[in-house]
Amino acid sequence: MIVGLTGGIGSGKSTVLKMFESLGVPIYQADIEAKNIMVHSQEVKKKIIHLLGDESYQNDELNRTYIAQKVFNNKELLASLNAIVHPAVYKHFKNFVAKQTAPYLVYENAILYENKSEHLCDKVIVVTADLEDRISRVMKRDKVDREAVLARMNNQWCQEDKIKKADFVIHNSNLDELAKEVAVVHNQLLKANEF
Ligand code: ATP
């Protein structure tokens, strides 16, 4: 069973993911794998350079700032970039899934709904947190100002729309409660998998 994990910026997806991992659940981080593929797949790299130019890489490292600047506010370029990266990640993910023997795995994708990737998942968990908590946590983590966090939030669906589509909602207030909520969902998923 594939369980999607999503939620807005700073909601606590990575924190929740680590908790599932510590329960022995296999995890797949779409964003991290996409970045790996953009660096290590020669085929993908060639296509990105063709689309965005040589500056997309610096000494074989991804030039994230350059790429972000190129595709920010340019929907066509972003769609073309996604059309290169997404199929490669999809293929990699399918290989990962085929190797798993656990009852379920968690597939983390911050923009699962925005990218219409929920069809990959049997169930979806949405992580939520109070807006002010999310803002202050990201400001602290990324050392950015409030406006920068709000700008990133504006590119994502709002929490309420994600909640409407979710199978499970995990609210992240304090870490102890969060661990308990994760354990409850874990047990429900194990039970759901018995049938
Ligand atoms: P992003 O979408 O930006 O990748 P995320 O949803 O993965 O964020 P996390 O990175 O898990 O969110 O959490 C954001 C920050 O808040 C991290 O620094 C994390 O350690 C911290 N954090 C998460 N949950 C809590 C909590 N309940 N109490 C205090 N700090 C928290």
TrEMBL record:
Record's keyword annotation contains Signal: no
InterPro entries membership: Depp_CoAkinase, P-loop_NTPase
Catalytic reaction(s) noted: 3'-dephospho-CoA + ATP = ADP + CoA + H(+)
Pathway: Cofactor biosynthesis; coenzyme A biosynthesis; CoA from (R)-pantothenate: step 5/5
UniProt superkingdom: Bacteria
Binding locations of ATP: G10, S11, G12, K13, S14, T15
Alphabetized CDD domains for the sequence: DPCK
Predominant subcellular localization, coarse grouping: cytoplasm
Enzyme Commission number: 2.7.1.24
HAMAP family: Dephospho_CoA_kinase
PANTHER family named in the record: BIFUNCTIONAL COENZYME A SYNTHASE-RELATED, DEPHOSPHO-COA KINASE-RELATED
Family: Belongs to the CoaE family.
Name of protein: Dephospho-CoA kinase
